[in-house]
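Fold it.
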Amino acid sequence: MSKPTEKLTSITGLAAPLLIDNLDTDQIMPKQFLRTISKEGLDKGLLYDLRFDGDGQPRTDCILNRPGYEATRILIAGSNFGCGSSREHAVWGLQQFGIAAVIAPSYGEIFYGNALNNRLLPIMLEQSAIDALVAALAQAEQATLEIDLLALTITAPDGTLTPFTLAQRSRRMLVDGMDMVALTLQSLPQIEAFEQRHVAAQPWMRVL
């Protein structure tokens, strides 16, 4: 039986705009940080070439290196975020850095699935809505956003609400603290009924 995980109904925290289109998983988690048999320490490799120069010194032009932004909880990204290879380490690195949600116009398909399966919330918004959020953050003393998974809204610092959508299955996994196995087991009676009908119609398929 799959164990329940922590329920997630809201995410509130500092939001950092990193508006780079087509930021792929090779950039999010470079290959040299994949030489590990555990998930630990991947935060050090997150967006390494954007955060550090060739000598390993922090780049001052990277928002994640600015004072305070080491506490970033929400990343506002460009279109097609997480495209490229299927490395799950990109999601783990984001989470280990402290990022709980990403807001972008679109995502690489595999990254999007990996994010949801690991409880990193990927929100898709129209570019105009993202531009409005970024503008509100720029005008605020505290660049924080509040994401409500029950109401499916994002609250900007000025109080403006931006609605978003999320597949019911994905939302339930996050809100109720279930992984894919636990959610599937919720449908066990229907699965068993289908199995019985299937075997009755095709008895040669019965497993002895």
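The chain has two domains: 10-177, 179-208.
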